[in-house]
Amino acid sequence: MRVGTDTLTAFAVRLAAESRRMLAAAALTVTAVEAKADRSLVTEVDRAIEVRLRELIADEFPGHGILGEEYGPCDLDADLVWVLDPVDGTAAFIAGIPVYGTLVALARGGRPWIGVLDYPATDDRWVGVVDGFASRNGSPVRTRRCPDPGEALLTCSNPDFFPPAERQALDRVRDRVRYTLYGASSYAFGLLAGGRTDLSVDCGLKPYDVFAPAAVIGGAGGLMTDWAGADLGFDSRGVVLAAGDRSLHTLTRSLLTPP
């Protein structure tokens, strides 16, 4: 039996709520930290939340695939695949900076479709469906028009993640925009969906970092692709461009990937 969009969106919110419960409780204690092979940080909280979300998915939708940051892929060739980042912004969580949260996405046909961005420390939750809707804490949000890069606010998680060639591309964009802000993790994507910022340029991101934001931004009228303008997929190489205004997206692509 085919399950409707509303039911799947409600389940994505249920997953985010369960993660929020666990993450809020864990934030009250000092957490042991490990470094992964790529030097990113992980805690037992990351792992425990992902295990719990996988259990809920397996119980409710055993035919769906799952891709999570901590435990990898399962049935990626399924039409519907849940994409999970149990603690996005683990370093921020460890440091107590309140931009950490959980990203829950449902991919359809290997592309972002439904997304939830949830942040317990700020009590914020964005929910979105590509070409459908986007909301923040239950109120509709839309991206804003900003065709002129000279008026645009740009966000970037951390330029230290950029190899030299990609760093030069970022610099071309930074030289054209009004102002650049750093370090907000995925929270910046929610702000873009709500029209508070205009552009986001990043590098080194994985599907579990971007599928949920892409769904929310797409539902709010914006666009999130790779730097060449291609749709995000499980095999994307990690360079990401999001814009609230599609003409600004096109212009920024020309700066990132000049002929």
From TrEMBL:
<dbReference type="InterPro" id="IPR000760">
    <property type="entry name" value="Inositol_monophosphatase-like"/>
</dbReference>
<protein>
    <recommendedName>
        <fullName>Myo-inositol-1(Or 4)-monophosphatase</fullName>
    </recommendedName>
</protein>
<dbReference type="Pfam" id="PF00459">
    <property type="entry name" value="Inositol_P"/>
</dbReference>
